[in-house]
Amino acid sequence: MTSLVHKDLAKGVATITLDSPPNRNALSVRLLAELSERLHWALAEPEARVIVLTGTGHVFCSGADIKEQKASGAPVTASFPEILTLIWESPKPVICRLNGTARAGGLGLVTACDFAIAPLTASFAFSEVRLGVVPAMISVPVLRRVEPRAAAEYFLTGEVFDAARAAEIGLLTRAVPEEELDATVAHYADLLIKGGPEALAITKRLVREVPGMSFEEGLRRMTELSAERFTSQEGQEGIAAFKEKRPPKWAAL
User: At 95, is the secondary structure helix, strand, or coil?
Assistant: First the structure.
């Protein structure tokens, strides 16, 4: 049986590719199971420093597999929360390389990633309300990325919008010409690999947790963390490498 999700590892980058173009990389039971397996592999693989999530064809992900949903009667995306959590809480940075359009549940994958790069030709829509359902699960990562007014606009109307608008409202990190997509993804991956693995994992948490702290609590906890990191093994290696004008040990792939 042909795999619906492929994996590859090269120069510290683990690439996970959705490969079910006949149904526009829809979130079927089988695709989700394979995606979960590939994510666990990337997270456990010591040589994988950065994860890139992408797809084949002209659509990154069209959302839930509606045909399978109708045939089974049971939710086909029952494992989706676990997958979104794996991506969101990954200690390794995750880049979403959108090969094309994304709809509905596919946008949950996009917003769970730390970076999202798409070609200017891609389009997006939260189409749930037009089917009489709601963007329930995906609202958890989406509403942490997208501006509130824009989220209300597109959640409620189901209107299609372009990549430039998606970047403007926070859904994407960058929208670039199609011929620049791979170079832009590689640019971010190369930058991320230069960071200390522990420092990257901790900094991911800072971005999410610090805004919820009071000013006083934030300064207190961050002062403690700063001292801890400067005296850590990774911090000491980074400082030594800077002084000796050499790459730190973690950057040698």
Answer: strand
